[in-house]
Design a protein that fits this description.
seven-stranded mixed β-sheet
Length: 150
């Protein structure tokens, strides 16, 4: 598997991006300001993440997704760790990520990759998404913010 930055002239893997964020509008807004990285096997895109500059010396990992047929193989962890290394190489001091209160697997993954919980943005998904989101039998209401010093 190779991970690389998506070239400007390449088509966005929107199907993968929408796996991690169901709002096309939100994806289009941050993808325009961020850098998209893709994971490939035999030149087929199977994973994606986006880095977005949020403040001086701080970058946010805003979208991590792996094609369903390739999930549960450690690819998501490789993507997160690659994002951390990419942020370090670019000279950022902190990397942040946010995920839903109902995203139990993602909360575990980010912590396994060295992130620590730092904040909760209450009702983020209620305010910014038109449709209710449910995962693991839990309504996704709050954005759990995690951070890692680089």
């Amino acid at each position: 598997m190779d991970i690389r930055k998506l070239n400007v002239n390449e088509i966005l893997p929107m199907d993968l991006l929408l796996l991690a964020d169901p709002s096309r509008k939100m994806v289009e807004q941050y993808i325009a300001r961020g850098e998209c990285f893709v994971a490939e096997i035999d030149q087929q895109i199977i994973g994606v993440y986006v880095l977005l500059l949020t403040r001086p010396e701080m970058v946010e990992l805003v979208n991590v997704a792996v094609a369903e047929q390739h999930q549960h193989r450690g690819i998501g962890k490789q993507l997160v760790l690659d994002a951390v290394q990419s942020a370090k190489r670019k000279g950022y001091k902190t990397i942040e990520v946010g995920t839903g209160n109902s995203s139990i697997g993602q909360l575990a993954l980010y912590q396994k990759c060295g992130f620590r919980m730092v904040d909760i943005d209450k009702d983020f998904f209620i305010k910014h998404y038109q449709e209710d989101i449910f995962e693991n039998g839990i309504q996704c209401r709050d954005m759990v913010r995690l951070s890692q010093d680089l």
